[in-house]
Amino acid sequence: MTHLNKKPRLEKNLTVNHIDDLPDDLVFSILRKLSSSASCPADFFNVLITCKRLNRLGLHPLVLSRAGTETLAVTAEKWSDSAHRFLKLCVNAGNIDACYALGMIRFYCLQNPVSGASLMARAAIKSHAPALYSLSVIQFNGSGGTKSDKNLRAGVALCARSAYLGHVDALRELGHCLQDGYGVPRDVAEGRRLLIQANARELAGSLRSYLSLKSGDETLTELNGLPVQEIRPVNRFLKDWFDSGRVVLAEGLRMCSHGGCGRPETRSHEFRRCSVCGKVNYCSRGCQALDWRVKHKMECAPLDLWVEAAAVGVGDEDVDAVEVENHAAR
Hints:
55% helix, disordered C terminus, zinc, two-stranded antiparallel ribbon, 4 strands, Sel1-like, metal-binding
């Protein structure tokens, strides 16, 4: 018989884990949505560490195959074996964005060009526009090999496919190739048409960026009064990797001068220099065009041009006009 003054014993575990009661297909659906829409890797991993079941299901190929570019945006500062394994899991799950990201990291940062190019090729086969364009840059420059490894026709073919899929840098590169007859029969009219199309798409993107900037989007900045979009995650990784000093480039190797690129040379004199000042170099015409509009236009001028202008009393505006003509003639 229970004593009247005896207090009933409280249950030790009053917390009920309702997650265990949910069916797997519902949890998979939630995690797939999260992996595709997370704004950074931490948003995704903070959910996985909640419990063992979420961790197990969150690393399932059905979830990792849908991981978006921001979920895969591992930073150079936090790069580790665990981050490498995570990207490999996503690659094995068939995620083409992961193939591209890990391919770029292996090719340029981990100095494994064979594996890196192979991963980018896996993404390119699935019509991944940035991977196609990156492979075209590699073919144009002969990156990872010697100067004789350049394959202009292959570069043009990859660039054309990427341009067809809407990649603006590839569209601009293809336009210049047609204008110059670089790796393809010369067609000035078609080249100009593609350049106009690339400029129109870039203008539309700039207007969207400007509106986002005015509405308080913190991912955008202004440079020289122009809205500049945030660097793409993979290019940001490359830039931060080499800026941090984790890997020191061999003597004579240079980085692409466009701040939003991050690609390094894989051999001496791989990238083309500015034919006017000779102080900057670019991995592609796309990077050259972007850097010219954002920054280099205000910096580029040979010393003898300024001396001559001062001697004859030519104004700054006339000097800028000469610079533009020199660049257009390249």
